[in-house]
Design a protein that fits this description.
The chain is mainly β. The protein contains 1 helix and 33 strands. 3% of the residues lie in helices and 45% in strands.
Length: 449
């Protein structure tokens, strides 16, 4: 979570609050509840969740190392779910958010809120092989305000890895279709000893290329591309906590040095890591993601992910029930679930469709195929792409799209287009020269050789 205060800077009893213009003041925070832990354990790893903190993961230890990896300085740390949407600011029934968090908008957090109030667990089961938890999260920027949603998690162990499935189910009274926001899937905070980030950010994943590493104080947190879809927070010997998130290659990272010699669970020093997805969170959405945690060496983490990623195909998307990670600007759809295709009504002259952060090499994906129907007077499509490095300029090419008729698959040759080369991360479609009210129906989008 991109927190400027107690996510990394709240004292155990006091919160240092930075206000506009760089001023600060101290705000008293309530005492922490005694943990109520539930555990899974095998011969390689131990994982614990705290039922007094919404069921967030508050403990991960690898064997035989035994050191605690997860930081619990306040309710914004842990390994947990955190989601973002509008409005900004979020003022339910006139309740005002803390000034420091006003810009976050609607922000349910699994563990609790900025003031130290804990989210309520509704249901929990531990079968010895799986932990299930359902909780009502609190709004981080407010005090003791429950969110109109529920969070669920399923946790299992497989050898050295911790498999986690997360779900948020919205039941909001506010039905406005808000702009997409970056979601942490999940937010991961480690103890200060494990705050150096290691990953692979090159354009030839799983070929044994040199790793990248950072030790960047924050916030603001830094963004990076994890083209092998994993990253780790490690110590000076390259041992720590790895995170595999197959759904995105766009990540955030940072560290808070804290006080010298204080690097425990209740200390301020921490490492931060989050795979990030740009998503619309509709008033009634059920949104899920999965990830794995791996305590171990960088070599062990990378080798495991290599096996999990084996057989990955070029990006392809079918809009049967959901937007599958795509977002929308310049238009509006009918919400989720989708009726077997993505139907968008233009509100401006250009409808922007933006795909999720992925990875492909241009020389392996020379053709774009879109199954769609454009109900408009003219059909001009600008296909744009973004590389894996922030400094790389966006490339694009313009094509004509037939209008009217029936939905069918259209092919667009990207191979040989200026700037279409190397490793690429994101695909964007811009339907231009539209009139408000005109309709676009998209059934599928895929890249082919």
């Amino acid at each position: 979570m991109n927190r400027f205060i107690s996510k990394f800077g709240a004292a155990y009893w006091l919160v240092l609050v930075f206000l506009a213009g760089g001023r600060c003041r101290l705000v008293a925070a309530p005492a922490r509840l005694e943990p109520e832990m539930s555990w899974l354990e095998n011969d390689r790893v131990i994982v614990g969740i705290d039922l007094k903190m919404g069921g967030s993961i508050t403990s991960v230890r690898g064997k035989p190392d035994g050191r605690e990896l997860v930081n619990n300085y306040d309710h914004g740390r842990q390994v947990q779910m955190s989601f973002y949407s509008g409005p900004v600011p979020f003022v339910p029934n006139g309740l005002q958010p803390h000034p420091a968090w006003r810009a976050l908008g609607w922000n349910p957090v699994q563990s609790g809120d900025w003031a130290g109030n804990a989210s309520k667990v509704l249901e929990h089961r531990n079968t010895g092989s799986e932990m299930y938890t359902k909780a009502v999260p609190l709004q981080w920027p407010l005090e003791g305000v429950e969110s109109e949603c529920e969070m669920e998690s399923w946790i299992r162990l497989e050898a050295q890895s911790i498999q986690v499935r997360c779900r948020v189910t919205n039941r909001r009274a506010d039905r406005i279709f808000y702009p997409a926001k970056h979601q942490e899937i999940p937010a991961v905070y480690t103890n200060g000893e494990f705050r150096r980030v290691v990953t692979y950010s090159g354009d030839r994943p799983f070929t044994g290329g040199a790793l990248n590493e950072w030790l960047d104080p924050g916030p603001p947190w830094k963004t990076f591309s994890a083209t092998e879809r994993w990253a780790a927070l490690v110590d000076s010997k390259n041992w720590g906590l790895g995170v595999w998130q197959p759904a995105t290659t766009y990540w955030k990272q940072g560290e808070v040095p804290g006080e010298v010699g204080k690097q425990g669970q209740r200390d301020n020093a921490t490492g931060y890591l989050a795979p990030v997805a740009l998503e619309h969170l509709d008033y009634n959405i059920t949104y899920e993601y999965e990830f794995r945690l791996v305590p171990g060496s960088v070599e062990e983490i990378r080798a495991l992910v290599r096996e999990w990623e084996r057989g990955r195909e070029l990006p392809q998307y079918r809009f049967e029930k959901g937007r599958v990670g795509w977002t929308l600007r310049g238009g509006i759809d009918g919400g989720v679930p989708l009726p077997g295709m993505w139907r968008v009504q233009a509100q401006t002259g250009t409808v922007f469709l933006e795909g999720p952060a992925s990875f492909w090499r241009a020389d392996a994906a020379g053709t774009l195929k879109i199954s769609a129907l454009l109900k408009a007077q003219s059909g001009r499509l600008r296909v744009a792409w973004k590389g894996i490095r922030p400094e790389e300029p966006e490339g694009s090419a313009v094509f004509e799209v037939p209008v009217g008729g029936v939905r069918k698959e259209h092919s667009f040759v990207l191979k040989g287009q200026p700037g279409y080369k190397g490793g690429l991360q994101r695909l964007m479609l811009r339907f231009e020269a539209l009139k408000p009210g005109e309709i676009l129906e998209v059934e599928s989008i895929r890249l082919e050789p």
